Amino acid sequence: MTPVLDVRDLAFAYPDGHQALFGVDLHVHRGERVALLGPNGAGKTTLVLHLNGILSGETGHGEGSVSVSGLPVTKKNLLEIRRRVGIVFQDPDDQLFMGSVRADVAFGPANLGLRGAALEQRVMDALDRVGMADFADRPPHHLSFGQRRRVAVATVLAMEPEILVLDEPSSNLDPASRRELADILRGLDVTLLMVTHDLPYALELCSRSVVLSDGRVVADGTTYGVLTDDALMHAHRLELPWGFDPRAVPVDSLPG
């Protein structure tokens, strides 16, 4: 079966000469939920920005390939690639710029040509999936940070992506908002790649984890296996929160 996301031997250096990726391979299949872990400077953001063509060999020196459901990430395919790959950035204000929640969520599908009742249905379905349908006519800047993050997720879901990429989804959320977002993400029927430093969140939501360090994939296995490999964790500057022990988490509560 063709992977939803197929990254092969991806290398990339920025114009200043900094080499950020060295021959990265990453394959994510339909329905998988994968956490991308690694210390700061590991190359995680550089990798994510290749997934929908924000970075490419044309913006620096790159080799290798990225494809989404068999479609290569190239300039001529960017419109369709950016529909298929929905990236939710760390700061929701990078994605919310219209006068109302409804207008923000409608922006992407409208640019694809959706109009009228079909557009309204797409918008409300996306907002309903993140529990924000009652806020459709509110200005985004009147919402809490956690609510804005949920709306940012809805703007991507409205595009009906084949893979949802989340950059640090739990950052800056209070405990209640963090839990609410986890419940929402757990309930979505979508392939998921989650970039995070929040290791308990990765364990809660993603059955598989890939560790990127110094621009290379150094581990790819179950999230439980990664987080309980003390030597791996120490070697790549991955630290669990004080008092959190994945070995104490009931196995039947982990994602399958």
Q: Pairing-aware structural class of the strands and helices?
A: alpha/beta
What is the radius of gyration? 18 Å
* Biggest sheet details: 6 strands, mixed
CATH topology group: Rossmann fold
Function: Part of an ABC transporter complex. Responsible for energy coupling to the transport system. Probably part of an ABC transporter complex. Responsible for energy coupling to the transport system.
Domain ABC transporter: 5-239
Family: Belongs to the ABC transporter superfamily.
GO molecular function: ATP binding; ATP hydrolysis activity; ATPase-coupled transmembrane transporter activity
Summarize the structure in short.
The protein has helices at residues 44-51, 78-84, 101-111, 116-129, 145-157, 175-187, 199-205, 223-227, 230-235, and strands at residues 5-13, 19-28, 33-37, 61-68, 71-72, 85-88, 163-167, 191-195, 208-213, 216-222.
Secondary structure elements and pairings:
Layout (H helix, E strand, L loop, with lengths): L4 E9 L5 E10 L4 E5 L6 H8 L9 E8 L2 E2 L5 H7 E4 L12 H11 L4 H14 L15 H13 L5 E5 L7 H13 L3 E5 L3 H7 L2 E6 L2 E7 H5 L2 H6 L21
Parallel strand pairs: 3-8, 3-9, 6-7, 7-8
Antiparallel strand pairs: 1-2, 1-4, 4-5, 9-10
Helix pairs in contact: 3-4, 3-5, 4-5
